[in-house]
């Protein structure tokens, strides 16, 4: 009927209609009251600090507000040490504030709060017979993050495009635990599924345990095969004086399958199933100001993996070590105060795979294509294709047992963009070598013979120039990864290696 108002229009009118003026006034008064209480607390805290910095005080209680989904026992381990009843002497007010800030920092590093918790200090009711004149009450106000996060998206880089889905459950049992579920499909990693559960130990954000599992299928076109992996791991991470340490056990079933028609004999020889059972220890000391685009500082990183030896079993056995260093220094410019945004960085990586006897046998096992190093591509030696350096069998990059690579980069702000933006122009030169151990002439591996061949292979790294490329490009440091678009010109290419002249796109979190 003409002129009749649709029910949906009525709803829209109600949404547009202003609230009752009396209700608005009531809300305004409540907000003003809360603001006045907060300002009063801040003034009282300021007065306490200014007038009583060196005076003794005792913390009689600590209350954490807003942490409704966090276990009291979890919070108690963090805040109980603050109580004067647990101290051997009284605090000064400055000491009490310093220790409280330390506890708040521990809370915040558990990553279960949206922002850094705030601190309020008040005196208890003086009419309470249990209180003393030096008592103070500490209030820590928090706001918890959402316990469920769901993300979907697409990624591109390193010659691969992929789509992913990620589900994160946070603070599951009230102790800063997290469960992360991830699924992705792509052009190279055809499918990957991963589940990871992580929890702090004894409420300490610097000591964490993790267990997880994965199933993946990855197309490795540079070696004419597909690799399927299924397995799990357990990890313990802690922060020490020398940096971040991680100790892990990994058990993986791997299958080299999906051979291309022209797959080389080396790749076909490693086809089929293998089981890796290994223990890995890594130590990382990262002192860079901004890891994805450093202007100052340094990084040192080392890892050691022991697989298949002694009680570890499996059917592959080796000792695999890697080291990485990076340093960055700012470059001053005449007439520019402070940092110019120009920086010079150098990086170095090296690795060694040492064959070991399997289990309790005495015969060292030759390395497999699954475990050897690959070198070349936009995230390490630019100007070469993925896996473009090192030993080859026909068109296949079959990997090596010893490698070394280095890079020098000059990063400059883009004109009219500014040095405070995460964009840079880079000029670089990088190079490296990847070598394989030769098999014993009689086909029978012996431990002294392996040691001699390792020594001679390392010496071979210094024989002649490494493969080298230089170029210029654009860099964008996104908060989660670094993007590079480079024009590369190979300068030294060894026989059989696969260089790439021209544009090359790279995406990664660890770029040489």
Give structural notes:
A hairpin with a 2-residue loop joins β5 and β6 (160-170). Residues 1-19 have low confidence and may be disordered. The protein has a 16-stranded antiparallel beta sheet. A four-stranded mixed beta sheet has the order 2-1-4-3. A two-stranded antiparallel sheet has the order 16-17. It is elongated and about 90 Å long. The protein has helices at 7-16, 21-52, 72-79, 93-108, 265-269, 447-460; strands at residues 56-65, 91-92, 118-122, 135-141, 148-157, 160-170, 178-186, 189-201, 204-220, 225-240, 243-257, 272-286, 297-307, 318-330, 343-355, 392-393, 396-397, 402-413, 423-435, 467-477, 482-492, 502-508. It is α+β, with helices and mostly antiparallel strands and 512 residues long. The longest helix is centred in the first third of the chain and has 32 residues, at 21-52. It contains six helices and 22 strands. Helix content is 17%, strand content 44%.
Radius of gyration: 30 Å
Secondary-structure content class: alpha+beta
From the N-terminal CA to the C-terminal CA, the straight-line distance is 73 Å
Strand order of the largest sheet: 5-6-7-8-9-10-11-12-13-14-15-18-19-20-21-22
**Would you count the extended β strands for me?**
22
Overall shape: it is elongated
Q: DSSP strand (E) fraction?
A: 35-45%
Tally of alpha and pi helices: 6
Main sheet: strands, sense, barrel = 16 strands, antiparallel
